[in-house]
User: What shape does this take?
Amino acid sequence: MLAKSVLSLALMAIASLTQLPFADACDGWLDSRRPYLSQKTLYEYELNLKTLSSFFGNFKLPEIDGDLIRAYQRTRQQNCGPSAINHELNLLCQMRKRIGIPLQDYQPLPLSKEERGRALSPEERERLLRIAGSNPNWEAAFYFAVISVNTTAGPKETMTLRFRDIDLARGTLRVQPEGVKNVHRIRTIPLNDEALKAVQFAMERAKRLGATEPDHYLFPFRVYGGQNPKFDPSRHQTTMKTSWTALRRAAGLPGFRMYDLRHHAITALLENPDVSEQTVEDIAGHVNPKMKKRYSHIRMEYKRAAVDAILGKPLKKQPHREVRTKKSTSGTPRANQRTEVVQELAAVLAKLLNSA
Assistant: This one.
């Protein structure tokens, strides 16, 4: 009897989705998915469904055909890339599958075979962070960039950090479920000197903006701007699009995404054959297999030297190959460049803090 009742309710729910205007059907479908989604995924679904609803309007789910979808793809391509459009339409496919009418006449947009993420050369990294620290209006973006590029924490993972997620005594931060897409990205990350300074100064900034409790965020939400902006530290900042766009333009890095800071950090870890892949994943969470394959030849040289040592051969020090997006012309060794960057960042951070 109970099984029949549950089946009846399910059929009623499916029937209602077929009769409702698209926007209302989205609300009903998302409510049914809510218990199974992480906070980050739920937030992304809400944004994607809002975008879909603005186009499909009062259409009902069974009325949306291939021609309508292709019109949507053409319209969205004016402002958006194929990957994001495919993610949006994937939700529409899920909704149609729920009502038992899978989309037959739909083709996802082709994706570029080139890997989207990119790493910075040492000169680009230094220039980006130096310019970010030169403008007080980019203070939040500066702290975010220093943290992300040194920890592998992505944009949402960084912006959802709370005071309680930071352990200054141990020099660690803890990425929480709120900022991750799956459980494999929940992790504790040690902070190097640059990241520790940036976290400390981000906390000082948050305190100036009203953060006082362990549950308050390092990057408080701006309620409104103008001459006297107001911030709500119980909510996290959701975007840095304006400042990031201006910052990357000033740094001469058009198209460099906030997420590419995480890509750069992972690249730097994988470039180092002394760092195991397990350690990389402990720090970064899930790592794209394509990225690991890209650096497998470096690691193989070290493994070969290790097995040669079994035969009594001396363990030779293997050369460290660097993968850069732009060739350095300065001739300065990489270790010296990193030291100079740390010193310069420390000076910029101290100047920003003292002027606050």
User: Anything to note?
Assistant: Confidence is low (pLDDT under 50) at residues 1-12, 318-338.
